[in-house]
Amino acid sequence: MDRLNLSRWAIRHPALVGFLIALLFAAGTVQFFALGRDEDPTFTLKEMIVAASWPGATPTQMRTQVADPIERRLRATEDLDFLQTYCVDGRCAIRVSLKDGAPKDRVPVVWQQVRKQLKDLEPGLPAGATVAADDDYADVYGYVFTLTGADNARLVALAEQARDAMLRVPGAGKVQITGEVPRRLFVDVDSRRLAAMGLSPDAVVQALAKRSSVAPAGIVERSMRVPVRIGGAVDGVDTVENTAVPGADGTIRVGDIGTVGNGYADPPDGLVHHAAKPAVVLAIAMAPGADGLGFGKQLSEAAAAFGRTLPAGVTMTQVQDQSQNIREAVDAFLIKFFCALTVVLLVAFVTLGWRTGVVVALSVPLTLAIVALFMGASGIGLERISLGALILSLGLLVDDAIISVEAMVVQLEKGASRADAAAYAWTHTAFPMLTGTLLTIVGFLPVGFAQSTTSEYAGGIFWVTGSALLVSWVVAVVFTPYLGVRLLPEARTHHDADAMYDTPVYRRLRKLVDACMARRKTVVALTAALLAASLAGAMLVRQQFFPISDRPEIIVDVSLRPGASLSATSAAVKRIEASIANDRDIAQIDSYIGQGSPRFYLPYGPSLPDPATATMVLVATDLHARERVIARLLANHASPEAKLHIRRLSLGPSAGFPVQYRVIGPDPEILRTIAARLEAVLRATPGTTAVQADWGTPSVAVRLDLDPDRVARLGLDRARLAGEVATMLSGQPAGDVLRGTKRIGMVVRGTAADRSDPGRLADMAVSTPGGPVPLGQVARIGATTEQPIVWTRNGALCITVQADMTGDVQAGEVVDAAAARVAAIYALVPITFAVMLLLLMIQLQSIGRTLLVLATAPLGVIGAVVALVLTGAPFGFVALLGLIALAGMIMRNSIILVDQVTHNQAEGMDLHAAIVAATIGRSRPVVLTALAAVLAFIPLCFNIFWGPMAIVMIGGLIGATILTLVALPALYALAFDRTSGLPKKDHDNA
User: Fold this and answer.
1) Which among 612, 621, 592 is positioned nearest to 604, based on CA atoms?
2) Rounded CA gap, 189 and 186, in Å?
3) Rounded CA gap, 124 and 117, in Å?
4) Which residues contact 945 (CB under 8 A, 6 or more apart)?
5) 329: part of which helix (H) or strand (E)?
6) Taking each helix axis from N to C terminus, what angle separates 718-730 and 201-212, rounded to the nearest 10 degrees?
7) DSSP states of 55-81 as a string?
8) Longest alpha-carbon distance in the chain
9) 20 to 30 Å CA-CA from 171: which of 38, 204, 462, 876?
10) Secondary structure tally for the chain: helices H, strands E
11) Average per-residue pLDDT in the chain?
């Protein structure tokens, strides 16, 4: 048996153990400061956007002819949760969402399967329809720069130069340029003039397309291969004007039938403003595994160097610097961490004496050094979750060191040698401590192994806390005995085994324990009543899943009625920008019109492209200013035609709207009626804001009803007629002008007057074999209405009525929205419970004692609920983690106390004396552990993310410590001392 005693082995090999301590401490310290730093842990975004286009199709045609076939093919996707689709004129977007429990390693494989399905499907779509998939949403472009002060083309060119410079910085990943408006070479033609010359718009398109095409002209084979090139390609306005268009009476120059000029895509896909000025955005993502602080510093230096080369008037501004957020987050946590560590060490020194305190003081940083080595080997860096887990561990791991040292001190007080006292830590406390440690780790098992986004985000809690607790046990049974032999005093020559417990404090505690055991039924009943009252009091605690971020950004989603043009959206944004331009609480304003901003923060999901929407990113000067700005924005009426959804960033995975109602059915009119009623109810509900339905109201459309007889007599057909009208109104591509790395598209279109005035449609000339005729002679032109945007969910028409909550209101729907993620975590609870039972049975070898220990696990709820009610802190995910850790600590104390009772009985004590002696002997480590943990958690109380957990731990530990010393003895006596004076063997077999 002695051969299995690791504590005795450690003190018999002092040179080796001392070397290992020095080596591990030095290596761990170096590794700790070399760990990567990031703001948040990464998690897999299980969404893909499938975008399809079919120019000229109505929203209904897009849904029935394009979206429906795609959805039918994608419904067999592995781990599919739902398909959400919206269709507008000529395009649609399908959000493919996988189940939250989809294994993250399978997600790339699933997306590859989706792409294969789409490739196979594309030939069966209508002619002219295209489809593409994009799952590039996981990259965080945390370093964002804006360029202003020149025209768009110049800004884009400068952004491309900056991109090349940034990509040379070690650690740079993907780079994204946003805000580029493609250049175009426009040919504006008058339909009447074309018709008078016997030409159609398509003839102009074909002439330009043929001249701009690139085709091989062969190679002359001699001693060298000599390629043949054909000149005369289109290279600018002059060559376009001089391009000949064949007509009935010869060729006609393009310049004679239209106006040629350079310009930008009209309308563009999107626009970007910085400080209300047109801008181009350069966004950089850090490569996986890079150090955010080092990369941010090098990137800033590269940006500063490039900024010195910019032409006069052009400004490059960094609007997002993830390294600054990382530095603030990590530094704040490190300060809290070292404050907590200092507090723990001070408690050890003050309460245990300097020699004993030194042993504990050395064991704690040694444990953390070894954990740092594990984190480095596992690729876990310092971020919000891992740092919080380290602080959580700090309140737990000190327990093992104190228990081990306490056991040694007691044996020294009894006259044992230092070597025997050190070996006692293994024989009497090692395995109860190990069982308690494993119980605490198993409590976090659902967070570490649940197949969910939440688990992926917060799973570091399991790995960091678990490794810290296991390492603390190894340190307590191997290194702490070695240090104790070196630092603790020799055994006393004259000793009294009971003298250390014969003090006023211990005498009063003994009387209290005796009284509780004498009134065991009353004490147990009162404890049960307190537990029931605390569970009832939990109804007073606000519910929350993940809290709001402490970042100063404000996201303002601007929505005009579906179908609104980009120019209308841009005008609305400009009015909002002007109304807040002089707000001193706002440090920065960036607007992304018709598109979402880059994903500068992992939990933030950019909105989908839509000309009727915009995203404004406001940066407040501080958190108090953020709330003042939000209050003013809620009352902002600068653009009454726009709906504003104002929100803060969230910590952890979150949804855009916490309150959402889906209305699903086949009849659009009934859907709209029900949705309108829901909107009215939500608007009348206190605390709601940004109430809206995602369909909007029907919009006006122009309808051309063709006269089939006249169309047939004139030799026209519907497709040709539609093509001519589309060319004159929206323009038709006619090839590209190659200029450097850019391709400038040529577009043939009607004059500005024809494009902007639907009233001139009747006079538009269309070409026929017999000559031009006005459009009004072959078609009846009228107005109609249609739904500008159509949403579906899993193929069924779906209107979603959405709302947000104002101020500090916690909506019950937030919890409902998180129910799936919570359920994924709780899915492993039965397994967790089974493992706990197994560990307890292995250690205690008694069903009765196992149930007794389990009965103590909920005792922490009493103090936790009181603390949450008094502080007003919400109960959410991190608070739940605190309760789990609390239950583990309580059960560990209970296991060691129950195990000590068994040892005392084996030494001849009756049950009553064994319970009292065990409680008295365990009182100091229990109180010291709780005191150290409570003080360690105080700095964490003021953190937005971890504060609720710290409050739960503080309140729960205070309450549970008291109950462990008074209620547990009474419960033990009630369960096992059914008849006073019962022989100890009967108790052992209970």
Assistant:
1) 592
2) 10
3) 12
4) 384, 388, 547, 550, 651, 878
5) helix 322-352
6) 70
7) TT--HHHIIIIIIHHHHHHHTT-TTEE
8) 129
9) 462
10) 37, 30
11) 83
pLDDT score of 988:
41
HSE (side-chain half, CA atoms, 13 Å) at 139:
18
Q: Are 953 and 937 in contact (CB under 8 A)?
A: yes
The neighbour count for residue 173, using CB atoms within 10 Å, is 15
Average pLDDT over residues 930-952: 82
283, β-bridge pairs:
144, 176
Report in angstroms the alpha-carbon separations of 91 from 132, 137, 385, 904.
Answer: 11, 20, 41, 79
Phi, psi of 682 (to 5 degrees): -65, -40
Token pair listed for 452: 């969910």
Alpha carbon distance 29, 25 (integer Å): 6
Q: HSE, CB side, 13 Å, CA atoms: give it for residue 950.
A: 23
Alpha-carbon span 283 to 270, nearest angstrom: 16
CA distances (Å), origin 2, targets 9, 265, 424:
9, 84, 11
Cβ neighbours of 461 (radius 10 Å):
25
With residues binned 3-state (H G I as helix, E B as strand, rest as coil), the percentages for the chain, rounded to 5, are 55, 20, 25
State yes or no: pLDDT of 819 exceeds 70: no
Residues 208, 737: Cα–Cα separation, whole Å = 10
Q: Copy the structure tokens of residue 65.
A: 């002819």
- Residue 479, Cβ density class (10 Å: 0-12 exposed, 13-18 middle, ≥19 buried): buried
Place of tokens 């043009």: 565
pLDDT band at 551 (very low <50, low <70, confident <90, very high): confident
Q: How far apart are CA 187 and CA 516, in angstroms?
A: 96
Residue listed under structure tokens 């093919």 = 73
pLDDT digits (tens, 9 = 90+) for 430-488: 888 888 888 888 878 877 776 777 777 778 888 998 899 899 899 988 888 888 888 87
Q: How far apart are CA 736 and CA 182, in angstroms?
A: 12
Among the listed residues 103, 66, 97, the one whose alpha carbon sits nearest the alpha carbon of residue 81: 97
Choice among 216-220, 280-284, 688-692, 818-822 with the minimum mean pLDDT:
818-822
Rounded distance between C-alpha atoms, residue 809 and residue 101, angstroms: 29
> Is the Cβ–Cβ distance between 258 and 188 less than 8 Å?
yes
pLDDT at 923: 85
CB contact at 8 A, 835 and 924: no
Burial of 622 (0-12, 13-18, 19+ CB in 10 A): exposed
E strand or H helix at 619: strand 613-620
| Residue positions counted in the chain | 990
Residue 66: closest CA among 790, 800, 799, 798 = 790
701: tokens are 């459309």
Q: What is the pTM of this model?
A: 0.76
Question: What's the CA angle centered on 85, arms 83 and 89, to 5 degrees?
Answer: 160
Buried b (16+ CB within 10 A) or exposed e, 768-807: beeebbbbeebbeeeeeeebbbbbbbeeebbbbbbbbbee
